[in-house]
Amino acid sequence: MANWPNPFIEQRADPFILRDGSDYYFIASVPEYDRLEIRRANSLEGLRAADPVVVWRKPESGPMSQLIWAPEMHRINGKWYIYFAATHTQALDKLGMFQHRMFALECADTDPLTGKWTEKGQIKTPFDTFALDATTFYHQGKQWYLWAQKAPDIAGNSNIYLAELENPWTIKGEPVRLSKPEYDWGVSGFLG
């Protein structure tokens, strides 16, 4: 196996790669945290040289107007979706946490680089707290959503939750908590 360059693509955090047919897609956080851009290539290696295409820019104000983080792109039932975290402010809340929530974009066009992306809004969860790092997968006939979220009943870091999706931007039923930070490596920096 050949050695891969590290970093694979400069100045990109939270990278995500999707293979769809013979195409590879790359999306990640950009240093300015102000937009979502996608790269496409016909090989994994080709993503490094592929030109990024901006498919969405943050609005000037509102819940998705600051610190666009950790995007993932998925294809669900023939449509494209981007899940990402965003916030309305760069200020920390009273617990010293960022105020990110999770959001979704949808593109019904065949080509996600030239298609129209529509804002589907915030992914609503039972409590309105810091949330990020969402992903989705299909298993046993159901579409699932997995994410990290700060629970109101714990100090510090976030739990990991799983829920079935009613549609790609709406949780169905009550989420299940899969884990909570309880070991030193999971609470580092959050306990006194």
From TrEMBL:
Organism: Salmonella enterica I
Protein name in UniProt: Glycosyl hydrolase
GO BP: carbohydrate metabolic process
Single GO MF annotation: alpha-L-arabinofuranosidase activity
EC number, UniProt record: 3.2.1.55
Family: Belongs to the glycosyl hydrolase 43 family.
Keywords for the protein's UniProt record, in alphabetical order: Glycosidase, Hydrolase, Signal
InterPro entries, per the entry: Glyco_hydro_43, Glyco_hydro_beta-prop_sf
Pfam families per UniProt: Glyco_hydro_43
